[in-house]
C-alpha cells in the first residue's frame, strides 16, 4: 500500500471457484472512529471468521467494514443422506404396540416411521478447514485488493482537495499578517487626530500617544497565532506526504488551527481582519469534514 493516504470509504468484490465450490466475497466500508469489522458468512464457515478478520486487518486499520461471504456448491457429494436404523426400529416397535393396544389393523409403518424426526437426515460432510481456507483465500484477496485500491483512489482525491484548501488558508493568513501592522498605524493616526480635535489643534505629547498605541498594539497582537497557524499548515502538508493512518493526527491539528483562528477573531480590532477570519474558519471546517473520511 506504500505511504499513501486512504479514505475510509470503499468497496471490493472477489470470486473464486475451487473444488466444485464458488466463493463470493464483498467488502464495503464507511468512516468510523475505530476499526470495526463485521463478517456475515454461512454457518458452515463460522470456524474461519477470526482468520478472515485477521487477514483483512492486515490492510484495514480504521472504519466500519462489512464483509459478506457466500458460497454455492456444484458437487453431489456435498450432501449426505443418513439413516438412523436403531431409531427407526424403535419407532416401528412402538407403532406395533400402539396398533395392538387400540386394536387397529394395517397402516403403512414404513411411511409413518420415515416421517419421524432424525430417522432420515441430510448432512453436509465436514471438510478440512485448511482445504476450505485455501479455496476461499483467492476470493478474499481479490476483494481486499479491489477494496484497498478504491480506498487509496478516494484518499488521493481527498488529499488533493485538502491541500488546495490549505493553500487558500495560507493566503488568508498572509492577508491577516499584512493587515495587522496597518491597523496599528491607522489607530495611531485616528488617536492623534482625535486628541488634536479635543485640544483645539494643539500637538499632543508624542510619548502619551506612543503609550496608548503600544497598549492597543499589544492587546490586538496576533503574531503568535499567525506563526502557529503557519506551522500547522506545514505540519498538515508533512503528515499528508508521509501518508498511512493520518486521520486522528489531522483531526487534532485542525482543532488547533481552529483555536488559533478564534483567538485572532477575538483579538482583532479591525473589520477586515474579522471578515478574513470568518473565511479562514470556513476553510478549516471544510478540511475538518474531509479529514473525517481519512483512515
Describe this structure in words.
By secondary structure, this protein is α+β, with helices and mostly antiparallel strands. It has three domains: about 10-75 and about 130-150, Ribosomal Protein S5, domain 2 (2-Layer Sandwich); about 80-125, no CATH class; about 155-290, Butyryl-CoA Dehydrogenase, subunit A, domain 3 (Up-down Bundle), CATH 1.20.140. Helices cover about 60% and strands about 15% of the residues. It has helices at about 50-55, 85-100, 110-115, 130-200, 205-220, 225-240, 245-265, 270-290; strands at about 10-20, 20-30, 35-40, 65-75, 80-85, 120-125. The strands form two sheets. A four-stranded mixed sheet has the order 1-2-4-3. A two-stranded antiparallel ribbon has the order 5-6. Strand 3, helix 1 (about 50-55) and strand 4 form a beta-alpha-beta unit. Helix 4 runs antiparallel to helix 5 and helix 7 (about 245-265) runs antiparallel to helix 8. The mean pLDDT is about 85.
**Could you give the count of β-strands?**
6
User: What is the average per-residue confidence, as pLDDT, rounded to a whole number?
Assistant: 85
How would you describe the shape?
rod-shaped
Query: Helical percent range?
Result: 55-70%
CATH architecture of the largest domain: Up-down Bundle
Radius of gyration: 37 Å
In whole angstroms, how far apart are the ends? 13 Å
Helix-strand category: alpha+beta
Number of helices: 8
> Biggest β-sheet: count, sense, barrel?
4 strands, mixed
Order of helices and strands: EEEHEEHHEHHHHH
Provide the domain count: 3
Main-sheet strand order equals 1-2-4-3
Low-confidence stretches: none
CATH class of the largest domain: Mainly Alpha
Any idea of the CATH topology of the largest domain? Butyryl-CoA Dehydrogenase, subunit A, domain 3
Strand content: 5-15%
